[in-house]
Design goal:
The complex is a heterotrimer of chains A (about 450), B (about 325) and C (about 300). With about 325 residues, chain B is an all-alpha fold. Helix content of chain B is about 75%, strand content about 0%. The chains are: A alpha/beta (about 450), B mainly alpha (about 325), C mainly alpha (about 300).
Chain lengths: ~450, ~325, ~300
C-alpha cells in the first residue's frame, strides 16, 4: 500500500515537473511557419521532400546532434517548432495566411515558399507586417529586382533562376559542342517560370556561344496539360538536338513517360533545369545522358560531397524517409540553417543574450555561412539574396547502388553564373555578363 | 421618407457604424479578413441580384478579376494609386464588360447561362496567365493605396482602406437594396416565376435581365477592386480561376437571397471557416469546406438568412404584417 | 506546308481529340440526360487514374501476363462507376432533384472538394507512375516519325465508346426511354417510365466513363493530386463547344479542338494555350447553344 502511494507521489511529481518544463519550454520556443505544398500537383516533387528536410534539420537542431559548426542546441539556445501549412490556392490566400501567421499566431519567422508566384505575391506584405521571411526555393529574380528593392525582412537563401540557366548555358557550350551544331530549341510551360527560364537561357547562350542559334519557334505548352503527343512530334521533327526545358513535377514525369515511349531521348539531349526533383522517384526510368539541374550543390549533386553536415543529412534522411534527399529537402533545410546561423551569431554579437529580430536580420544580411554541402553567400540585393556555386552533369543509372547518379559534372563558381551586386539579372545577361568571374 | 428608411436600411447603417467602431479595436489580421469579406460579399451580392431572376453565374470571377486587374494595371502603367480613381475605373470597366456580354447572355437561362459565364471567365484566365505585360501567372503587385492627398503608411493604410471600403460597400448595398424594391427590381422575380407571362404583360424579360447582369458586373468589379487593394497583389489563380467563382456561389448559397446584408455576413463566416480549417487541418481543409457546403445545400438550401426569416416569422402578428408589407 | 506535316498534324490531332473525348464523354452523358453539370466528374477521373495506377504497379510487380493490364483498367473503371456512382447519386443527388439545377451543380462541386481530399487520405500526396502499358504496345512509324501505339489505341477506344453509346441510345429500349426522359421528364414519368431508375443507371454509366478516362490515361501521366481539376476545365470546354449534353457535339468538338491544337503546336506554338478558348469564344458568339444543342421546347 505504502509502495503504491509512493509510486503515485512520484508519478504526480513527474507529471507536475513535465508540465512545468512544457510551459517553460513553450515560452522559450521559436515558432517557424513553413509554407509548402501539402496538396496539389507540386506536393510530391516539392512540397513533401521540403517538409521532410525541415523536420529532419529541426530535429537535429533541437537535439543538438548536428555536426559543427551547428552543434549547439536550438536557435540562439531556443528550440524551434515548425508550423507547416499549405501553399496551395494562389496569391490571395497566401497573403492572407502570411498575415494570419504574423499577427494572429505571432510566429517568429517564415521559412519556405516554393512557387515564384507566391514569393512575388507575399514579398511586399512580409515587409509591411515586419516578419522575417526566408524564401527557400522560388526562383524569380523579380522578388528583389522589382518588388522589394530595399528589403529588410525578406531574404532568399538560394540563388535565383538566372544563375541556374546561365550555368546550363556554360555547360552546354563546353560539353555539348557536337549536339549543338544544329542549334537548340525550348520546351517550357506557358507561365511565368517557364517564360523566364527560357528567356534567361536564351540570353546566356547568346553571350556564351553566339554562333549557336535557337530554333525559330519554341514550344510553350499549357501548365499541367499532361498530354504532350503533339509537342513530342514537333520536337522529333525539329533538327535541333539540344532541348532546354524547365518542366517540373507531374508534367515532367508525364513528358518523360510519353517521350520514352516514342524514343525521344535517344535522339535529343535535354537540359532539365529542375529535373532532379523527379529523378530519384523515377530511378531507372529516368532517361540517361540528360542534363539535370538543382541550382546549387543540392540533392543528386550533393551525393558524395564529403562534409560532416552533408554526411549527417544524407544518412539520416535516407534512414527516416527511405529515399535520398532531393533538391527541395536541401533548400528548405538550408533556409532553417540560415536562421540558426543568424540567431546564433546575433546572440554572440549581443553578448550572449537572446537577440532581437533586428539583430538577427543584421547578422544574416551579407553573411557567408556554411550550408549542408556548400557555402552560401548573401551577396546580392543589399545582402538579402544568396548566390551559390552551380553544378551540372549528365544522368546515368548506377546499377550497383541501385540509384540514379550524375556524371561528367562541371562545377561553376557562384561569381561565374550570378550577376555582381547591384546589377539586375536580365540587363546583366543582355550586357554581356560583365563582371563574371569564371575560373 | 419611409420608403427610403426601411428596416434593411437601418440595419445596414447600424452595420456600417459597428464596422467603423470595430475598426479601431481589431487586430490587423482580422481587419484583412473583414476587408476581404466586404470584397467577396460584394461579388456575392452581385450574384444575389441575378439570383432574384432565377439566374446564377458560375463565372463571376470574371468581373472580380476585371475589377482587380483594372486597379492593378492603372497602378502599374499609369502610376495612379488613388483609391477613388482606381475603384471607379474598376467598377466602370467591369460594368462595361457586363453590359457588352449582356447582349449575348440575356438570351440564356438556367444552366446554359451559368456555364457561358464560366466559359468567359476561363477565357479571361487564359489571357491573364499568358500575357507577360499583364504579369503572367506571377501577377502584379500594387503600390500602396492613396486617398486623394492622404497617403498613410503601414497599418494606418489598411485602417483608412477599411473605412473607405466600408462606406462604399454600404452605399453599394443600399443602392442595390432600393433597386430591388423598385418596379424594375420586382420584375425580376416575375422572370423567375414565369417569363412568358411577363412578356405578355408587355415587359421585356431580356431587358430586365440585361440590367440586372450589368448591375451584377458593376458590383463584382467593385469587389475585385477592393480585394486588389486589400491584398496588394493580383494573380490569375486567385482572381480568375474557376474555383474562385465557385467560392462566390458558395458564399451566395451560404448567405441566402433574403437580404442584401446577408452576403457580407456569409462572406465573413466563409472566411472564418476557411481560416480555421486551414490552421487546424492543413491537409484536409478542402474536405471541411466541401463538407460545410454539402450540409448547407442539404439542410439549409435557402442559406443562413432563412434562419433569420424563420425567427422573424415566429414573432407577433403585427410584426409579421409589417414584415410582409416590406417583402411585398 | 508539306504533306508529311499534314499527316502528322492529323495524327496528333486525332490522338488529342480522343483524349478530350474520353475525358468529356461521361460528363456529356450525365449533362444530356439529367441536366446536371456534374463536377464530381473530375474526381471520378482522378479516382480512375489512382486506382488503376496502384493496381498496375502491383500487377506488374507480380509478373502476371502483360496484356491483362487492360483488363485491370476496365475492371477498376466499372468498379468505381458502380460504387461511387451509386454513392453520389443515391446519397446526394437523389435528394436534390426537386431543387434548382444550380443547387445541384453546387452540391456536386462540394462533393468534388470532399472527394479530392478523400483521394489524399487514401493515396497520400505521392505520385504514382505505372508507365508499363505505354511501353508494352511498342511503336509505329507514320510519316517517318515514331508514334507509340498506346496513344493510337486511344483513338480506337474512343471510336468503340462512340459506337456503343450510339447503339445503346438509338437501338435499345433503355436508350429510347432515355431519349423520352431527356425530352420531357414529367411526361415520361406519366407514361410509366421509372425515371428514378433511369437516372441512377445514367449516372453510373457517366461515372464509369469518367473513371475509364482516368484509368486509360493513368499509364501516360504521373498520377498525383490535382489531376481532377485540370480535367474538369477541359471537359467543360468540350461540353460548351459541343452543345450541352450532345454526344455527337462532344465528338465533333473534341475533333475540332484536337486538330486545331495540333496545328498550333506545329505551326505557331504560342497559340497553343489559346486554341481551346478561342474555339470556345467563337462557338459562343456564333452559335451559343453549342454546335449540336438539342432543340428546347418552350413551356408556357
Amino acid at each position: 500500500m505504502k509502495h503504491v502511494k509512493g509510486r503515485a507521489a512520484v508519478l504526480l511529481a513527474s507529471v507536475a515537473s513535465v508540465a512545468l518544463i512544457a510551459t517553460a519550454a513553450s515560452a522559450q520556443t521559436l515558432k517557424i511557419a513553413v509554407p509548402t505544398f501539402l496538396t496539389g500537383g507540386s506536393a510530391p516533387a516539392f512540397g513533401i521532400p521540403a517538409k521532410n528536410g525541415v523536420e529532419l534539420i529541426l530535429k537535429g537542431i533541437n537535439e543538438g546532434t548536428l555536426p559543427a559548426p551547428y552543434n549547439s542546441v536550438g536557435l540562439a539556445g531556443r528550440k524551434a517548432e515548425p508550423l507547416f501549412y499549405d501553399e496551395m490556392g494562389g496569391g490571395t490566400k497566401q497573403v492572407t495566411e502570411l498575415r494570419n501567421k504574423a499577427q494572429k499566431e505571432k510566429v517568429d519567422m517564415i521559412v519556405g515558399y516554393i512557387s515564384s508566384g507566391t514569393c512575388a505575391a507575399v514579398a511586399r506584405v512580409a515587409e509591411e507586417v515586419k516578419l522575417l521571411t526566408i524564401m527557400t526555393v522560388c526562383g524569380t529574380p523579380r522578388v528583389f529586382e522589382e518588388l522589394v528593392k530595399e528589403p529588410k525582412y525578406v531574404f532568399r537563401t538560394v540563388a535565383h533562376g538566372t544563375g541556374n540557366n546561365t550555368g546550363a548555358a556554360h555547360y552546354a557550350a563546353k560539353m555539348l559542342k557536337d549536339e549543338l551544331k544544329d542549334g537548340y530549341i525550348g520546351l517550357n510551360q506557358n507561365y511565368a517560370w517557364g517564360q523566364d527560364s527560357w528567356r534567361d537561357f536564351n540570353l546566356a547562350m547568346g553571350e556564351i556561344a553566339p554562333d549557336v542559334k535557337p530554333a525559330k519557334k519554341q514550344q510553350f505548352p499549357k501548365l499541367f496539360s499532361g498530354q504532350y503527343g503533339s509537342e513530342i512530334s514537333a520536337l522529333l521533327r525539329a533538327k535541333q538536338k539540344v532541348v532546354h526545358s524547365s518542366f517540373w513535377g507531374g508534367d515532367l514525369e508525364a513528358f518523360l513517360a510519353q517521350g520514352t515511349a516514342r524514343g525521344l531521348f535517344k535522339r535529343k539531349t535535354f537540359i532539365f533545369t529542375v529535373g532532379e526533383t523527379v529523378a530519384y522517384r523515377l530511378g531507372k526510368k529516368f532517361p540517361s545522358g540528360q542534363l539535370v539541374g538543382t541550382r546549387g550543390p543540392y540533392g543528386i549533386y550533393a551525393v558524395g560531397i564529403d562534409t560532416p553536415l552533408n554526411n549527417w543529412f544524407q544518412k539520416n534522411y535516407r534512414e527516416i524517409y527511405k529515399e535520398p534527399p532531393s533538391q527541395p529537402s536541401y533548400q528548405y533545410a538550408q533556409g532553417v540553417l540560415a536562421a540558426k546561423y543568424a540567431y546564433d551569431k546575433a546572440m554572440k554579437d549581443n553578448g550572449g543574450k537572446f537577440p532581437t529580430t533586428d539583430q538577427v536580420i543584421a547578422a544574416l544580411r551579407g553573411a557567408t555561412f556554411t550550408s549542408i554541402a556548400g557555402t552560401v553567400e548573401m551577396a546580392l540585393s543589399h545582402g538579402h539574396q544568396a548566390i551559390t556555386e552551380d553544378r551540372w552533369g549528365l544522368t546515368a543509372y548506377d546499377e550497383e547502388k541501385g540509384e540514379l547518379v550524375v556524371k561528367d559534372v562541371l562545377v561553376l563558381g557562384a561569381k561565374c553564373v550570378n550577376p555582381p551586386d547591384g546589377v539586375e539579372s536580365v540587363p546583366w545577361l543582355k550586357g554581356g555578363m560583365k563582371g563574371a568571374k569564371c575560373g | 421618407m419611409t420608403k427610403y428608411m426601411d428596416r434593411t436600411t437601418w440595419a445596414l447603417t447600424i452595420g456600417l457604424v459597428l464596422l467603423i467602431v470595430v475598426n479601431f479595436f481589431v487586430p490587423e489580421w482580422f481587419r484583412s479578413i473583414l476587408l476581404l469579406s466586404l470584397a467577396r460579399g460584394s461579388v456575392a451580392l452581385g450574384l444575389l441580384v441575378l439570383w432574384r431572376c432565377g439566374l446564377i453565374s458560375f463565372g463571376h470571377a470574371l468581373f472580380y478579376g476585371f475589377g482587380a486587374y483594372t486597379v492593378a494595371l492603372i497602378v502599374k502603367y499609369l502610376g495612379i494609386t488613388d483609391a477613388f480613381f482606381t475603384i471607379a475605373c474598376g467598377v466602370v470597366v467591369a460594368g462595361g464588360l457586363a453590359w457588352m456580354l449582356g447582349f449575348l447572355l440575356r438570351r440564356y437561362r438556367g444552366i446554359f447561362f451559368a456555364l457561358l459565364n464560366l466559359a468567359f471567365s476561363m477565357i479571361l484566365y487564359g489571357v491573364l496567365a499568358k500575357l507577360e505585360s499583364l504579369g503572367s501567372t506571377d501577377g502584379i503587385s500594387l503600390e500602396r493605396t492613396t486617398f486623394l492627398w492622404y497617403a498613410p503608411e503601414g497599418a494606418a493604410n489598411k485602417f483608412a482602406l477599411f473605412i473607405f471600403a466600408a462606406i462604399l460597400t454600404w452605399g453599394v448595398a443600399l443602392a442595390v437594396h432600393h433597386y430591388l424594391r423598385s418596379t424594375l427590381g420586382y420584375m425580376t422575380t416575375a422572370v423567375r416565376e414565369n417569363e412568358i407571362r411577363l412578356e405578355f404583360l408587355g415587359y421585356s424579360a431580356e431587358r430586365a435581365i440585361h440590367v440586372k447582369y450589368t448591375i451584377s458586373g458593376l458590383v463584382g468589379g467593385f469587389g475585385g477592386a477592393i480585394a486588389a487593394m486589400t491584398i496588394g497583389h493580383v494573380d490569375p489563380d486567385s482572381m480568375a480561376y474557376w474555383p474562385i467563382s465557385g467560392d462566390f456561389v458558395f458564399i451566395a448559397i451560404l448567405s441566402g437571397t433574403g437580404n442584401v446584408g446577408a452576403p457580407f455576413i456569409g462572406a465573413l463566416i466563409y472566411e472564418l471557416i476557411r481560416t480555421y480549417a486551414f490552421d487546424q487541418f492543413p491537409e484536409i481543409w478542402q474536405l471541411i469546406m466541401g463538407g460545410t457546403l454539402l450540409l448547407i445545400v442539404m439542410f439549409l438550401p435557402n442559406g443562413l438568412w432563412s434562419l433569420v426569416d424563420r425567427w422573424s416569422k415566429r414573432r407577433t402578428g403585427r410584426d409579421r404584417l409589417e414584415a410582409e408589407r416590406e417583402k411585398a | 506546308m508539306d504533306s508529311q506535316l499534314l499527316v502528322i498534324i492529323l495524327i496528333d490531332g486525332l490522338v488529342y481529340a480522343s483524349y478530350l473525348f474520353m475525358v468529356s464523354v461521361g460528363l456529356t452523358v450525365i449533362c444530356g440526360v439529367q441536366k446536371i453539370l456534374n463536377v464530381t466528374h473530375g474526381a471520378l477521373y482522378a479516382f480512375g487514374a489512382y486506382l488503376t495506377a496502384t493496381l498496375l504497379i502491383v500487377y506488374f510487380e507480380a509478373g502476371w501476363p502483360q496484356f491483362g493490364a487492360f483488363f485491370v483498367m476496365l475492371v477498376s473503371a466499372i468498379f468505381l462507376g458502380i460504387v461511387l456512382g451509386v454513392i453520389i447519386e443515391r446519397g446526394l443527388l437523389k435528394h436534390l432533384y426537386h431543387e434548382d439545377e444550380h443547387i445541384v451543380v453546387l452540391a456536386t462541386f462540394a462533393a468534388f472538394l470532399v472527394l479530392e481530399d478523400v483521394l489524399l487520405l487514401i493515396w497520400g500526396t505521392d505520385a504514382y507512375i505505372a508507365a508499363e502499358p505505354l511501353m508494352l504496345l511498342g511503336q509505329t512509324d507514320i510519316a517517318e516519325l515514331p508514334f507509340d501505339n498506346y496513344s493510337l489505341s486511344m483513338v480506337l477506344l474512343s471510336a468503340v465508346v462512340c459506337v456503343i453509346l450510339w447503339y445503346g441510345l438509338r437501338r435499345t429500349t433503355f436508350g429510347k426511354m432515355l431519349l423520352a426522359v431527356i425530352y420531357d421528364r414529367e411526361l415520361s414519368q406519366a407514361m410509366g417510365i421509372n425515371v428514378t431508375k433511369v437516372f441512377l443507371l445514367t449516372f453510373i454509366v457517366g461515372s464509369f466513363l469518367g473513371a475509364l478516362g482516368g484509368a486509360y490515361q493513368a499509364p501516360a501521366i504521373s498520377v498525383q493530386p490535382g489531376i481532377g481539376v485540370e480535367v474538369i476545365v477541359l471537359a467543360f470546354a468540350v461540353v460548351v463547344i459541343g452543345g450541352m449534353g450532345s454526344i455527337p457535339g462532344a465528338l465533333i468538338g473534341s475533333l475540332v479542338v484536337g486538330i486545331a491544337r495540333a496545328a498550333a503546336v506545329h505551326m505557331e506554338p504560342v497559340l497553343e494555350l489559346f486554341v481551346i478558348y478561342m474555339i470556345m469564344a467563337f462557338v459562343l458568339i456564333v452559335r451559343p447553344q453549342g454546335l449540336f444543342a438539342p432543340a428546347k421546347p418552350r413551356k408556357i
